[in-house]
């Protein structure tokens, strides 16, 4: 009884609301309300993971295997608001929730056991210190919970890069050239790896990470993001 009292008291002082619609959350809703979960602009790239518009985009950048995204980016839509809250409004729980929800979808479609490890795209230490967390790592953690596959930050970012937002495809490729490396003492030889990020546009960042892992002997590398498209 005392536990329920304190929970009700905390909910009164610090109410839990859906970040998209503002409605109060039920106990069984970790981050988004059920209605907002159901109206997310979900993509179905996982249904044709080897042959879709994302894999076509990545041709020539890496040996393409599977590429997927949970939702489609729409300007001024729910996906843009979620990404903005995640990256700029100190809402790491959104990344974890997106991973958890997408992991459930992937598990329901036969993806359990498809990878040995999930690796997030790393932030530069200065940027991570400023933000307080790596949004891609939060997404990886949510996926890990649902898929029961370990997630670990095995890559490091060697150079601080400028934002990719207003760069062309060629400029994005040049911006991430020789930026990433495998952390010292880590080994990915023979592993089936899922590399994850918050959003895929040209795919330059994800492919740079994938190529590093392949160069160190990974068996194959798949890619997954919260959203596809955007800036």
Automatic annotation (TrEMBL):
Residues 136-230 form the Phosphoribosyltransferase domain. It comes from the Bacteria. InterPro entries: ComF/GntX_DNA_util-trans (IPR051910), PRTase-like (IPR029057), PRTase_dom (IPR000836). PANTHER family: DNA UTILIZATION PROTEIN YHGH. Belongs to the ComF/GntX family. This is ComF family protein. It comes from Algoriphagus aquaeductus. The lineage of its organism: Bacteria, Pseudomonadati, Bacteroidota, Cytophagia, Cytophagales.
């Amino acid at each position: 009884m005392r536990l329920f009292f304190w929970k009700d008291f905390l909910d009164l002082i610090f109410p839990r609301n859906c970040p998209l619609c503002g409605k109060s959350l039920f106990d069984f809703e970790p981050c988004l309300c059920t209605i907002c979960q159901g109206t997310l602009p979900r993509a179905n790239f996982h249904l044709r993971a080897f042959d879709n518009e994302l894999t076509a985009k990545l041709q020539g950048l890496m040996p393409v295997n599977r590429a997927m995204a949970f939702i489609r980016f729409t300007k001024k839509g729910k996906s843009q608001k979620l990404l903005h809250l995640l990256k700029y409004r100190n809402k790491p729980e959104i990344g974890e929730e997106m991973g958890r929800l997408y992991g459930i979808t992937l598990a329901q479609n036969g993806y359990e056991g498809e990878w040995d490890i999930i690796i997030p795209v790393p932030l530069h230490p200065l940027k991570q210190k400023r933000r307080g967390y790596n949004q891609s790592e939060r997404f990886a953690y949510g996926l890990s919970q649902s898929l029961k596959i370990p997630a670990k930050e095995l890559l490091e970012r060697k150079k601080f890069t400028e934002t990719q937002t207003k760069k062309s495809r060629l400029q994005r490729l040049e911006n991430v050239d020789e930026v990433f490396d495998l952390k010292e003492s880590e080994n990915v030889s023979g592993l089936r790896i899922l590399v994850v990020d918050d959003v895929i546009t040209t795919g330059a960042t994800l492919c740079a990470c994938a190529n590093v892992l392949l160069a160190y002997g990974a068996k194959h590398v798949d890619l997954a993001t919260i959203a596809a498209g955007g800036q």
